[in-house]
From TrEMBL:
Active-site positions on this chain: Y133, K161
Species this chain originates from: Spiribacter salilacus
Subunit-structure text: Homotetramer; dimer of dimers.
Enzyme type, top EC level: lyase
UniProt name for this protein: 4-hydroxy-tetrahydrodipicolinate synthase
Binding site for pyruvate: T45, I203
Subcellular location: Cytoplasm
Catalytic activity: L-aspartate 4-semialdehyde + pyruvate = (2S,4S)-4-hydroxy-2,3,4,5-tetrahydrodipicolinate + H2O + H(+)
Swiss-Prot/TrEMBL site (Part of a proton relay during catalysis) positions: T44, Y107
Any Gene Ontology biological process: diaminopimelate biosynthetic process
Known EC number: 4.3.3.7
UniProt family annotation: Belongs to the DapA family.
Sites annotated L-lysine inhibitor binding: A49, N80, E84, Y106
Classification of source organism: Bacteria, Pseudomonadati, Pseudomonadota, Gammaproteobacteria, Chromatiales
Source taxon at top rank: Bacteria
């Protein structure tokens, strides 16, 4: 249903933490103009953990309205409460999102059966296409291939963002479930490897600051143009590393501010990028040719 470069878009904020609606519009236009294949609104990079329910729904609605059918919008609607995830997913559907991205329930550490029942409940309750999101490094919860295999039989579960960092795991998922759901890479340094292994795209932090490069790299890989994809990915390599020198989205929001696209605002417990990392991120932006 989706392929290519999908940006995990940052949520611009004023210095007091209020949502910056003008900044939001600038970012959406940036991605429309630079060929990004889809926008994920209010995912991890969008600081979903610190937006309240009304803000979460408002940002999804605003992004859909600004995009005006020029680019698909995927709403980040995961939660560690099944009923909250259902409500947010319903909100995404009512806002006009093309799909929802649901992270595994964090902190409460459900069993594999609990994970299956959680995702099944939301998919049964809300008839919107849904993408699973596995990122055990942030959630302390790992969605295993056998559970994904079961979930792949649910018609409106259409994909998985795999961010375990395990290429073998991703290849197993493609072999086991690839005829029923699409796999999207969730770790920028591994985008190219997984695209060449059969992933349909990536959900990327780096695409926030290098949308054109990321789109072209993904398209080259999907078209089987390996040398061109490798050339473009080499230009992105320093960004893939530097945008994680501190917890995401701290570095990428600093980078977007440095590029003049958004202000410096973010919400506690996230804090501004430490000064010793500024030059590292700036040099990566220069190497990619985006600053």
């Amino acid at each position: 249903m989706f392929q290519g470069s999908m940006v995990a878009m940052a949520t611009p904020m004023h210095e007091n933490g209020a949502i910056d609606e003008a900044g939001l519009a600038r970012l959406v236009e940036l991605h429309v103009e630079n060929g990004t294949d889809a926008i994920v609104a209010v995912g991890t990079t969008g600081e979903s953990a610190t937006l309240d329910y009304d803000e979460h729904c408002d940002v999804m609605r605003q992004v859909v309205e600004i995009a005006a059918d020029r680019i698909p919008i995927i709403g980040g609607t995961g939660a560690n409460s099944t009923w909250e995830a259902e409500k947010l997913t319903r909100c995404a559907m009512e806002a006009g999102c093309a799909a929802a991205l649901l992270v595994t329930p964090y902190y409460n550490k459900p069993t594999q059966e609990g994970l299956y029942q959680h995702f099944k409940h939301v998919a049964d309750a809300v008839p919107l296409p849904q993408i699973l999101y596995n990122v055990p490094g942030r959630t302390a919860c790992d969605l295993l291939p056998d559970t994904v295999d079961r979930l792949a039989d649910i018609p409106n579960i259409i994909g998985i963002k795999e961010a375990s960092g395990n290429v073998d795991r991703a290849e197993t998922l493609i072999a086991q479930c690839g005829d029923r759901l699409d796999l999207y890479c969730g770790e920028d340094p591994r985008n190219l490897a997984l695209l060449l292994a059969g992933a349909k795209g990536c959900i990327s932090v780096t695409a926030n600051v290098a949308p054109d490069l990321m789109h072209r790299m993904c398209q080259a890989a999907l078209d089987g143009e390996r040398e061109e994809a490798e050339r473009l990915d080499a230009r992105l390599a320093a960004l893939h590393k530097s945008l994680f020198v501190e917890t995401n989205p701290i570095p990428v929001k600093w980078a977007l501010c440095e590029m003049g696209l958004i202000g410096p605002g973010m919400r506690l417990p996230m804090t501004p990028l430490a000064s010793q990392h500024h030059e590292t991120v700036r040099q990566a932006l220069l190497l990619a040719g985006v600053l």
